[in-house]
Amino acid sequence: MATGAASTIPPRRRAHRSVPWLALLLTSVAVAVFFPSQYVNGTLDSLAQTDTGLASTYATRPGIVQVAFYLHIVFAGLALLIGGFQFSDKIRRYRWVHRWIGRTYVVTVVVGGASAFVMAFFSSSAFIGFFGFGTLAILWIWATYRGYRSARDRDFAEHQAWMIRSFALTYAAPTLRLWLIVLTVVQQPFGLDEAVVAANAYAPVAFLCWLPNIVIAEVIIRRRGLPSLIRTAPQPRTGAQIMSRL
């Protein structure tokens, strides 16, 4: 009986929670596979002529910047590809698998973040792009390092919290594409030139692609009872509470 009925509740809750995780995982894999694959069909110069992705922005940059560009699309793509699997309960049961995926993720973030910081100096959005994408790169590496450090210290609550923040920043890649679509569509009624529309849409995504993500991540962290960066001010004690301690 009753125990059988009660036992059906946790699986339903787990299934309900798995829906957004599955959507996040599928979009991560799609972006991680599709967008880097754009750049395997030619050089940046040839791809710039067809206005493929960011090729036109980095085709004329110094060689070291182009190396950073390729490092970023490879390693950031790998981080996005494997990062979501770290939140799978089934994978976490096999600690050695979780551990090695985690170590690989940390390496991909460090390389992807460092190369992204170099790229930020040459963003087509100038200062907005530098500060937006540059800040994202620094925070991405920092959050991932804190997650790795807390795991080494066996503080697993902190580890979970920081890795949620880290992947929220990794997920900036899909949200950037989503914001570009939204900001492009809302400009259509104004009859602007395509180049103007593209420039208007791309400028704010330097911040929009990650700021909402990190806010949502903090909400998730608080809901799960993990250590949050948002500290709640202590509530003032009533007279009855003070007297009860005397």
What does this structure look like?
The chain has 246 residues and is mainly α. The protein has one domain (27-230). The protein is 75% helix and 0% strand. Helix 2 (9-37) runs antiparallel to helix 5 (63-83), helix 5 (63-83) packs antiparallel against helix 7 and helix 8 (126-152) runs antiparallel to helix 9 (156-170). The protein is globular. Residues 1-9 and 239-246 have low confidence and may be disordered.
How much helix, percentage-wise, in residues? over 70%
Oligomer: single chain
H/I helix tally = 13
- How many beta-strand runs? 0
Could you tell me the strand content as a percent range?
Answer: under 5%
How widely separated are the two ends? Answer: 49 Å
Elements, N to C (H/E) = HHHHHHHHHHHHH
Uncertain parts: 1-9, 239-246
Total domain count: 1
Tell me about the largest β-sheet: none
Overall average residue pLDDT: 87
Radius of gyration: 22 Å
How would you classify the helix and strand content by structural class? Answer: mainly alpha
Instruction: Tell me, briefly, the overall form.
Output: globular
Secondary-structure blueprint of this entry?
Blueprint: H1 2-6, H2 9-37, H3 44-49, H4 55-58, H5 63-83, H6 89-92, H7 95-120, H8 126-152, H9 156-170, H10 172-185, H11 194-208, H12 211-223, H13 239-244
Helix pairs in contact: 2-5, 5-7, 7-8, 8-9, 8-11, 9-12, 10-11
Summarize this entry quickly.
75% of the residues lie in helices and 0% in strands. The protein has 246 residues and is mainly alpha-helical. The model is unreliable at 1-9 and 239-246 (pLDDT under 50).
